[in-house]
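User: What would this chain look like folded?
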Amino acid sequence: MMRSFPINTKLLPVLLLFLFIAGSAAADGPKEINTEKGPHHRSVFDMPVYVVLPEGCAFVKSQAGCVDKTKKISLESSVIRLPYAALLEEFTEKNLKKADMELKMKDEFIWNGSSAMLMKIFQKKGSGMVGKWTLIIDRGNECWIINGLYPAKDQQRGEAVLKTIKSAYWENGQSSPPAEIPQGNVDVYGTPLKLAGLLDGAVVYTKDGFLPTKKEDGSLFVVSRISNTFVTPDKQAGFAKEKLQMIEKGEKIDIISEKEVMIDGLSGIEIVGYTAGGSKKLIYQTMLFDGKNSHVMVGIARSSIPENLDLFQSTAETFKTAR
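Assistant: Here's the prediction, encoded as structure tokens.
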């Protein structure tokens, strides 16, 4: 699956994958790339984009695409509900540096008839560095994003990933599939929340349906899953607190309440807190455990806190796992 987040919340570092320094195209205009679908093209994303996978790799399906864990190569996709030009305007050098990223190159193309931006990015990950080839594709009112990740120091793997990205094929008449999460969903009918986007297995809702949201309270609600992570009951509260502190990068979260919950037959932990910095934001998290996976719902708001807390709690209570 795919997940997406507004930039100003810094929620989940994977969104920062798309941060880059905006710039103008070359004076002679963007280059053209036209790919043809061949017998080796494969469908590995939820969106109708086909690629030729690198040779010698053993890929398995992941939430957002596919991964070869041995070679440390992965392919991921996402949908951002924002027009191409507006999306490019949202990213700044300041945001890039905050994400511990370095832009190595970028180039703009007319790719299969669509405007597209190809970027090479290095990002710090622990004590190492991850290389990323990122392709952003103009799809009218939304953008498709394809990412290829590899060990930054491995030039050979980087070239293999680039070759796969450059093989990308899609038909201009096709659109992305309806947003859904196979493992579970929430019911936002009758609430102010609207679907805003998808990114790597998570679904984001905002009050205006845009990423980033234009609403003054900056509110959003995110549903995601941590797969194949069994947490024993005695460790669930600690696990939930650890993940809570990862929501706002670089900001400590002060917890004001914590309680056990039961939603859709799953036990879980609800935590409410505030960022400890000068600009206080509400951070809401409910984590449910099914014995194999952890289902995570996160709400963030910078104003109208009582109303948004009620909204986040009532929305979380509607969560249903896939049957």
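Helices lie at 84-89, 93-98, 155-166, 236-244, 305-316. If you want, I can go into more detail on any region.
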